[in-house]
Design the sequence.
């Protein structure tokens, strides 16, 4: 029958189409999953290296403690150095007139002009101006900073906020200088106003290129709506962190004449930022997290402005230098007062209070029960769901909202719904690395989450391209890390390679990598990017080092020295920045030597003095007795034979 | 088990562990099938998170959605809590790898599948045609999956999918 045959042909045809569709769908889902896994691996690399860096950062804190403790000896040898390091003259009331009035705004200035007292017009003005890439004049920056400090001083340690059915509140996490994300949030959610409340949960600055602009918009909005725009301090609202993670550099670059003044006031303003916000008496919003000893009642009472920096722990003259958490004595002891430090004991927080603040700013939630030192970051702790329950119950709270950690979806819920992480800097590590998010809350209603992602081009690049970019970026950073530990790695490999064949099994290689680098990464999956394998599946462990090398500034300098310098370059930069108090970018040869020697003895690095001297002398190209240390640091950039250097590397320095 | 198989199994175990750990960001040896709603926030589920499917596929297997569903049922907790424990996942996944189950689609099979859909043998599919097949036949794509595939597959000038080129590009990307 005509009908019959044509319908059976049709059936066969549609059956074939069905099967074909299944094949394509199956293939695609497999491909897409592998793409997402690669993305996840890249993120893991970025995160573990970032936290390892932060750990280094906090170890630096020990270094400064060491210096403070050995104060007298250092002072005798090099009084000027000490004066520079510890003689930070923070007068209580820097005269506002002195700063602001001496900074004139020329008629030729085309940027935004703020009018005090500030109004919502000024917020609009700033937003529009920054969209046009304009820079706010130092005069206005200083005025805003002074005024912000004055108003913040009146605020308690924890801001109390109430929502109502007609008044929701929006909570944003880390922005890290990513202005586009702030603009996107304002675009989707509206500018702050009396009827549109916001909480910004710390880490406004560092890493991104527009930390200043973000800060200005947030501070101006705060000054216009002090009861509706709430700011919490993050671990990056800390002048020491800024020295390392880019904000200091941004300020000095944008404000060549008045940058130093801005930096000085900023240091102060940071310390007056509230520690957290409490919504409707039941939701705690803080930047990092908690520990088992978190005591909100204590935190309400402390003098928060005495918490200067995570790198300036309170000093004590105890014989026993170990940080002993069981000790309850206050750290307010007397420093040997030969020298010039203005940090009198009353200017410090007692040690246990300082630690409470560190916990709030640095801790991370984890699935494992209990409370453990945060070994990745080197400060604060990891807290489990039992700790969350205990602390929330103790202070009659229902939920903790925090930030501090980048999440692929911009937010994450854990600990049975009691802890929410919100992170607002999309593409944090690399384009396509993650979404940003914000939360809208109201009374007893379920929180709502909003996600977004800033895209550079008008149309979003396909996922596979974004993953490729992210992946190559992560691999490059990982290779640099390997390079900085080359000697140790080779030694570890050779220990296992008894037959000196140049080869190791996958298991042996992965073990050496993890142990030497201290990074918990999926080495097996990453191996194709890092090493070559022979046909038996064995690893040629030297192959990593064949396509990259550190371009040496000086031919004869020995590799270990170069490697060591390269590894500690971030730390060195921080210390140099501290010495270079006039931020001129130059330090004298003497200072370089003295600093290196101190560094040497503290970190137990076995580099001979004469080697450092030789290197220093060679770095001083024009023989004028000073080193441009930015050039010095740049001299250690890693050269990949097979890849071109990404220009965004400038951010990392 | 022969020594060889033992070694193979040991390496599989480590590979599976690595893949699991990358997604187990809470470091508590479980992975979400769904995000669990908490007592304080009822109904706070932001959709299904098929992480376990991603893990399985990232290990080189290509189960269909139906096969994936069955596999998850095998490893899920008795009371579906929404979590999958590593201890249960490991032996099942090791079996899958040893038996070489859910082998990936060879390139030429994929090409022939496209050719079947391209009945007039033009060498390409229009955007509408691909959408129709992918979202109406077989195990249909979600909107997100469809958009994702289109973003890479569609040639913006002709607004069509030249499948031969597309396949070639994807194969290069994976190697």
Sequence:
């Amino acid at each position: 029958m005509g009908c019959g045959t044509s319908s059976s042909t049709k059936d066969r045809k549609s059956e074939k189409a069905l099967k074909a569709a299944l094949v394509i769908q199956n293939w695609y889902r497999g491909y897409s999953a592998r793409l997402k896994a690669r993305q996840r691996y890249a993120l893991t690399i970025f995160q573990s290296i970032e936290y390892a860096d932060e750990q280094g950062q906090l170890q630096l804190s020990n270094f400064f403690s060491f210096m403070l403790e050995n104060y007298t000896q250092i002072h005798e040898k090099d009084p000027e150095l000490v004066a520079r390091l510890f003689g930070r003259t923070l007068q209580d009331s820097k005269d506002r007139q002195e700063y602001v009035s001496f900074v004139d705004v020329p008629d030729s200035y085309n940027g935004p002009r703020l009018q005090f007292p500030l109004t919502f017009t000024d917020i609009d003005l700033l937003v529009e101006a920054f969209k046009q890439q304009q820079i706010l004049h130092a005069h206005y920056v200083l005025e805003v900073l002074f005024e912000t400090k004055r108003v913040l001083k009146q605020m308690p340690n924890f801001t109390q906020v109430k929502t109502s059915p007609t008044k929701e509140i929006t909570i944003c996490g880390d922005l890290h200088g990513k202005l586009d994300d702030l603009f996107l949030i304002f675009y989707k959610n509206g500018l702050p106003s009396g009827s549109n409340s916001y909480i910004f949960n710390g880490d406004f600055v560092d890493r991104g290129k527009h930390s200043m602009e973000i800060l200005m918009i947030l501070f101006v909005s705060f000054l216009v709506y002090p009861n509706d725009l709430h700011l919490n301090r993050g671990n990056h609202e800390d002048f020491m962190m800024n020295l390392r993670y880019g904000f200091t550099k941004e300020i000095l670059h944008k404000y060549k004449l008045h940058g130093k003044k801005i930096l000085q006031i900023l240091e102060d303003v940071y310390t007056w930022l509230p520690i957290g916000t409490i919504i409707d008496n039941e939701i705690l919003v803080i930047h990092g997290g908690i520990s088992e000893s978190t005591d909100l009642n204590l935190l309400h009472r402390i003098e928060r402005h005495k918490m200067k920096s995570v790198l300036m722990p309170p000093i004590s003259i105890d014989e026993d230098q170990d940080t002993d958490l069981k000790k309850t004595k206050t750290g307010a002891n007397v420093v040997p007062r030969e020298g010039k430090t203005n940090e009198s004991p009353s200017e410090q927080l007692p040690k246990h209070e300082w630690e409470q603040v560190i916990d709030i700013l640095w801790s991370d939630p984890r699935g494992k029960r209990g409370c453990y030192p945060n070994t990745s970051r080197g400060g604060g702790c990891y807290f489990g769901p039992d700790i969350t329950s205990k602390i929330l119950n103790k202070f009659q709270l229902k939920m903790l909202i925090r930030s501090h950690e980048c999440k692929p979806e911009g937010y994450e819920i854990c600990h049975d719904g009691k802890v929410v992480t919100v992170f607002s800097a999309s593409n944090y590590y690399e384009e396509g690395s993650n979404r940003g998010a914000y939360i809208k809350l109201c009374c007893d209603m379920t929180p709502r989450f909003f996600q977004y992602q800033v895209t550079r081009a008008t149309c979003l690049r396909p996922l596979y391209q974004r993953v490729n970019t992210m992946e190559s970026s992560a691999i490059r950073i990982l290779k640099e890390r390997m390079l900085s530990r080359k000697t140790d790695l080779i030694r570890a490999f050779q220990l296992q390679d008894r037959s000196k064949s140049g080869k190791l099994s996958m298991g042996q290689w992965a073990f050496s990598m993890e142990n030497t680098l201290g990074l918990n990464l999926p080495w097996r999956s990453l191996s194709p990017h890092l090493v070559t394998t022979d046909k038996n599946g064995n690893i040629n462990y030297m192959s990593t080092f064949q396509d990259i090398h550190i371009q040496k500034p000086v031919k004869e300098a020995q590799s270990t020295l170069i490697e060591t310098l390269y590894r500690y370059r971030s730390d060195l930069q921080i210390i140099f920045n501290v010495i270079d108090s006039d931020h001129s970018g130059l330090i004298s040869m003497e200072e370089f030597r003295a600093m290196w020697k101190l560094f040497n003895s503290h970190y137990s690095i076995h580099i001979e003095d004469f080697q450092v001297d030789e290197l220093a002398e060679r770095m001083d190209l024009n023989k004028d007795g000073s080193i441009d240390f930015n050039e010095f640091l740049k001299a250690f950039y890693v050269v990949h034979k097979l890849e071109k250097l990404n220009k965004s590397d400038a951010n990392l320095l | 088990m022969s020594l060889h198989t033992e070694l193979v199994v040991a390496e599989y175990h480590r590979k599976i562990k690595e893949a699991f750990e990358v997604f187990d960001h809470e470091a508590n040896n479980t992975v979400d099938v769904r995000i669990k709603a908490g007592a304080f926030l009822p109904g706070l589920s932001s959709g299904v998170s098929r992480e376990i499917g991603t893990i399985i596929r990232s290990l080189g297997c290509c189960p269909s959605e139906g096969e994936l569903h069955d596999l998850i049922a095998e490893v899920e907790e008795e009371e579906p809590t929404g979590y999958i424990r590593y201890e249960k996942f490991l032996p099942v996944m090791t079996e899958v790898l040893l038996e070489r189950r859910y082998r990936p689609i060879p390139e030429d099979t994929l090409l022939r599948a496209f050719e079947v859909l391209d009945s007039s043998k033009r060498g390409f599919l229009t955007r509408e045609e691909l959408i129709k097949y992918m979202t109406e036949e077989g195990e249909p794509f979600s909107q997100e999956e469809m958009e994702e595939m289109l973003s890479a597959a569609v040639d913006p000038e002709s607004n069509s999918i030249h499948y031969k080129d597309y396949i070639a590009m994807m194969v290069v990307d994976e190697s």
The helical segments of chain B are 3-23, 51-58, 65-75, 86-98, 107-117, 127-136, 143-153, 163-174.
